[in-house]
Amino acid sequence: MNKLKYLPLLLLCILGAASVNAQDSASNVAITLERTACFGTCPVYTITILEDGTVNYEGQDFVDVTGKQTSELTPETVKQMVAAFEKAGYFDWKETYDTQIVTDLPTVMTSVTLDGKIHSISHYMGDYTAPLELTFLEQWVDEMANSQLWTGVEPDTSAISNGTDTPLVTLQRNQCFGNCPVYDVALFADGTVVYAGIANVNNIGVYTFQADAAAITGITQRAQAFKYFDWQDSYEERIMTDQATVTTSIRTEDQFKRIVRYNGDPNAPVGLTWIEGSIDQLITTLAG
Q1: Among the residues of the chain, which ranges form H helices?
Q2: Quick check: helix, strand or coil at residue 250?
Q3: How far apart are the C-alpha atoms of 75 and 78, rounded to whole Å?
């Protein structure tokens, strides 16, 4: 029997299977995030998260790593992420926010697939009519995917604006080698509080609360009394290893400061840990 005559049929079957697999992979996309160019050095890259947990990154310009990279999340984490978008109201928001109230900024494009339904949003970063939660969700995807490994861009909650103000107080708790809780908090002057849960916390996703504005200004006033603006910008001596890093920022009418504290540095002021604890306590109270 001449087996060679079956070779074309075999190749056709293989190519057909590859085509089906490619289609399956495309249909399994759960979340995408794309950051576009601006007139400066804005990082340009794309993140695609599949339902099976595969994270595909492609860097183009102004990032530490150009080209393609891959990492993994658990499928359960991806489900939680999609559910978090739904809870935040993502599927009810407009598909485009492109009013250029501020010029020369990048556009962030996201898409989320839920039960076969795809919702996409193009968000020009200078359009402050977009929901505040959208901007936090965009940064949250970066943090969930740990894109900083490739982009070199450190997430900065203190720079997110609600259109009129940036946060008076922020707190970011980062990863350690164990099960340290990872989350971001932003407190605005009008009492708006945004919490982004990332890992090892009860609630994954972006949540907005309303606090008494006086409670937030109270934290800034105590920080001033503690001489927060006179402290070092960082306390990162690692006498103890495998600890988390905590970043806070305080803003007043004429001052702004951001402090990075490694949890194992004994030189950090006691007042700094008190400020961190006050922010945590506020979130605990609001979240119930």
Answers
A1: 7-27, 75-88, 132-145, 148-151, 213-225, 270-287
A2: strand
A3: 5
Six-digit token string for 141: 């995807």
Sign of CA dihedral 200, 202, 208, 213: negative
Query: Could you read off the pLDDT tens digit of each residue along the chain, which spans 288 residues?
Result: 444 344 444 333 443 444 334 434 444 999 999 999 999 999 999 999 999 999 999 999 999 999 999 999 999 999 999 999 999 999 999 999 999 878 889 999 999 999 999 999 999 999 999 999 999 999 999 999 999 999 999 999 999 998 889 999 999 999 998 899 999 999 999 999 999 999 999 999 999 999 999 999 999 999 999 999 999 999 999 988 889 999 999 999 999 999 999 998 999 999 999 999 999 999 999 987
Q: Are 152 and 260 in contact (CB under 8 A)?
A: no
Q: Which of 229, 222, 215 is nearest to 259 (CA)?
A: 229
Distances, alpha carbon 174 to alpha carbons 50, 136, 160, 184, in Å: 24, 16, 18, 9
The DSSP result for 106-151, as a single string, is -EEEEEEEETTEEEEEEEETT-TTS-HHHHHHHHHHHHHHTTHHHH
Residues 88 and 56: their CA atoms lie apart, in Å, by 24
Structure-block tokens of residue 88: 């935040």
| Residues in contact with 136: Cβ distance below 8 Å, sequence separation at least 6, in sequence order | 157, 160, 184, 186, 194, 196, 206
Judge contact between 52 and 134, C-beta under 8 A: no
> Is there a contact between 140 and 112 (Cβ–Cβ < 8 Å)?
no
